[in-house]
Amino acid sequence: MTSIDIDDVAPRRTPSAEEFAAMQSSPEFQELRSRLRRFVFPMTALFLVWYLSYVLLGAYAHDFMATEVIGTINLGLLLGLAQFVSTFGITALYVRFANKELDPRAASIRNQLEGGQA
Fold first, then answer.
1. Which residues contact 64 (CB under 8 A, 6 or more apart)?
2. Residue 107: exposure state from Cβ atoms within 10 A (0-12, 13-18, ≥19)
């Protein structure tokens, strides 16, 4: 394993405000934003509906939530645990999506800006 001395790394240049503004209006940046929004907004809406449903069931459907599934474990407990599982699942989906779709595009944009090709 080799170590990199901080002095061996070439400093990246800082883009100007005009270059940032130009990049924001570029098709590459718009595509990045569009892909992010197409994932984040529906996933957020889905999770909020799922969470609100759980809260409303807990508040108004006591008998349903108290339905015993296995021994003393009831449906409310299982749905509550499913909230945690779905949160981790959404996080895993986002990480995979970001690694595959967002990070390469963001790195390309950053290289264009900091490499002086903007």
1. 57, 75
2. exposed
Indicate the domain borders of the chain.
24-114
The answer to whether 75 touches 69, Cβ cutoff 8 Å, is yes
The pTM of this model reads 0.79
Q: Residues 73, 98: contact at Cβ < 8 Å? A: no
The answer to whether the beta carbons of residues 85 and 79 sit under 8 Å apart is no
Average pLDDT over residues 106-115: 90
**Residue range 18-48, pLDDT digits in tens:** 988 999 999 999 999 999 999 999 999 999 9
> Buried (b) or exposed (e) across 39-54, using 16+ Cβ within 10 A?
beeeeeeeeeeeeeeb
